[in-house]
Amino acid sequence: MYSDEKIFNKMVERRRDFHRYPETGWAEFRTTSIIAETLINAGMDIRFAVDFVEMEHVLGRNTDIKAQIRRAVSQGASPEIIEKMKGLTGLVAEIETGRPGPVTAIRFDIDCVDTTETEDPSHLPLLLGFNSVNANSMHACGHDGHTAVGMTLAEQLFSERSLLKGKLRLIFQPAEEGARGGYAFVKSGIVDDVDYFLTFHLGLGNPTGTVFGGTDGFLYSTKIDADYKGVGAHAGAEPQKGKNALLAAASAALSIHGVAPSSDGLTRTNVGVLNAGEGRNVVPPNAHMKIETRGATEDAAKYIYLSVMRILSGAADMYDVKLTTQKCGEAVSASSDRDLAKTVTDAAASVSEVDRTELIQPMAGSDDACWMMKKVQDNGGKATYIGIGADTKAGHHNDHFDFDEKAMGIAFGVLYKTIFMLNGLSPV
Q1: Is residue 111 located within the same domain as residue 148?
Q2: How many C-alpha atoms does 76 have within 13 Å on its Cβ side?
Q3: Burial letters 162-180, b for 16+ CB under 10 A, else e
Q4: pLDDT (tens digit, 9 = 90+) per residue, 196-212?
């Protein structure tokens, strides 16, 4: 089925539609609506996130929900389906075969990156008319492809459920960027009964035709929003009456990027956003920062996080401004089970478009799917994070990012074959 032209063309069409209308974490109303409508029309049972996620576990949620919903409807989302979401994005689809067998979950992330797509005339999405129309929103990480593969795979597996055993659970997770969605889904219990957990990513520096059965080396990560509140004043007449929030934030930003490395493992920090001030002649009374920390080990992650928090607090004291912080996302580390990764590479070897397989790829990033992997493994199940190579025009999160769409066909084939090896009445 992986080389079926009709299936491949369907994935391409869907991917380009999602690329045209990207939505950031916890605001994927159109995306969720399109997925839901497609799977319902195929006859599948679905549950929206609101049916199982507890709001207390939701991190970094977009507060301007009404505006996001209005935009989604104007861009083709179903108002009736959006009403059923009750302000929370994402969904889960179940395929119950009625025959004894394992519970296998496959997770697909559906959100985009907070960046603006290039207007370079050589950029393929622009040339073909599927470049992003939403401000500061771009599928610059391949999640449009992940979603298209997930929808199409769900349809195909449901149509062939008579050939399967056990249960399949397809998880369409919001807010992977910023590590905001995985934790809420795990706390809901959605993977508590899972025997096998699969997820995948396109690209990651690997060429089209390469498949890694698993991934190791994920970094722990914490996402922080910090706000400084000072006092505005006339910068010329009464500067002494002001309390400069911008300088506090600037001082903190420089110090955060100067934290000493840890002997406990690799660490990373990034101040991705710093907005401050109101006018040229006004002592800046406010500043907002978006920060992330990462660590290769739990101790390294704790070290860098606490270092950043001390710096933020120290800058507030130094400039006599008030500081408020909020943890907006968090990811843990996880490792892929070798035997399940081997099942994936065995499946990939029978996909004609695959020309190289490796058991494990190293990873220097973070993914909140690790919450799900770790939970499944803690409960005695197996989990793996599959790497599907895809030639790209630029690195992930770059405004020129685009990937070789042939990789979606490979991803479909690898997942399809793997699922039949785990849940099939007989291999395909």
Answers
A1: yes
A2: 11
A3: eebebbbbbbbbbbbbbbb
A4: 999 999 999 999 999 99
